[in-house]
């Protein structure tokens, strides 16, 4: 049954959220020493996901209408972050940086859209569904590791970050079910939602993560973080370009 194959694929992709185990394997102390490097990598992978994957895909469907939605996503994420600051922090120090919530929100939307994409591919043909699952899996690995690094940077304990990252990833299952049942009704809205999520990724990378990197002024740190940011872009770029288009 096609639905079972769809669910098996999105559950498999959801487990990629445990890519942060790589960080735990380094040991908590060493991981925290390298955290700014991983944050730079996360910035690059978020920007690459937005500019090289999400926006081009949306523009194929709706053309230049995608651009206002990217701007809309930027503004919405700014407002959400301000609301989180006001609601959860007030005049006291936050126990969790709002960037963590924004990253989980953006990641959840992105994962749900991946689920819709996989459902659509399997409905077209099972071989296309398999290829689509492989392609999405490959570009999810660097992004999920980046998401884990962001959550730890924002104050979460590593094990808790793995848990929340997995919960965010399971929205792929919701997207797949909705895609299977309501594909003809929701397909027209997908490019708009993807564009807004791309704007959210750009906001998180440039407004929240990159300013943290500017706090390091020593040349070795500058070089390592610059190389990590470029690596985040390149890894996602090659994952997207070397695999079949989905």
How would you describe the overall organization of this protein?
The structure is a single chain. The protein is mainly alpha-helical and 246 residues long. Helices cover 84% and strands 0% of the residues. The mean pLDDT is 82.
Give me the strand/helix succession: HHHHHHHHHHH
Shape label? globular
Supply Rg: 18 Å
Total strands? 0
Low-confidence stretches: none
Fraction of residues in H or I helices? over 70%
Derived from helix and strand composition plus strand pairing, the structural class reads mainly alpha
Mean pLDDT value: 82
Roughly how many Å apart are the termini? Answer: 22 Å
Largest sheet: none
| Percent strand | under 5%
Tally of alpha and pi helices: 11
> How many domain modules?
1
How would you summarize the topology of this molecule?
Elements: H1 2-14, H2 21-25, H3 28-33, H4 35-62, H5 66-89, H6 98-124, H7 126-153, H8 158-169, H9 171-186, H10 190-213, H11 219-241
Helix pairs in contact: 1-6, 1-7, 1-9, 4-7, 4-10, 4-11, 5-6, 5-10, 6-7, 6-8, 6-9, 6-10, 7-8, 7-11
């Amino acid at each position: 049954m096609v639905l079972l194959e769809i669910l098996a694929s999105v559950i498999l992709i959801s487990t990629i959220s445990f890519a942060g185990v790589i960080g735990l394997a380094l040991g908590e102390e060493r991981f925290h020493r390298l955290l700014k490097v991983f944050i730079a990598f996360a910035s690059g992978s978020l920007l690459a996901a937005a500019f090289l994957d999400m926006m081009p895909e949306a523009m194929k469907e709706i053309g230049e209408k995608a651009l206002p939605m990217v701007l809309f996503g930027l503004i919405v994420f700014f407002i959400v972050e301000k609301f989180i600051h006001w609601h959860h922090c007030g005049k006291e120090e936050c126990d969790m940086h709002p960037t963590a919530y924004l990253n989980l929100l953006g990641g959840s939307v992105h994962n749900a859209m991946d689920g819709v994409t996989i459902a659509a591919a399997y409905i077209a043909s099972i071989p296309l569904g398999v290829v689509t699952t492989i392609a999405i899996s490959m570009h999810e690995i660097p992004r999920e590791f980046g998401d884990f690094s962001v959550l730890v940077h924002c104050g979460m304990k590593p094990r808790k970050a793995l848990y929340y990252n997995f919960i965010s990833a399971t929205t792929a299952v919701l997207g797949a079910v909705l895609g299977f049942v309501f594909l003809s009704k929701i397909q027209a809205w997908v490019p708009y939602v993807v564009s807004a999520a791309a704007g959210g990724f750009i906001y998180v990378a440039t407004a929240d993560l990159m300013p943290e990197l500017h706090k390091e002024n020593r040349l070795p740190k500058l070089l390592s973080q610059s190389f990590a940011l470029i690596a985040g872009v390149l890894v996602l770029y090659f994952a997207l370009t070397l695999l079949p288009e989905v």
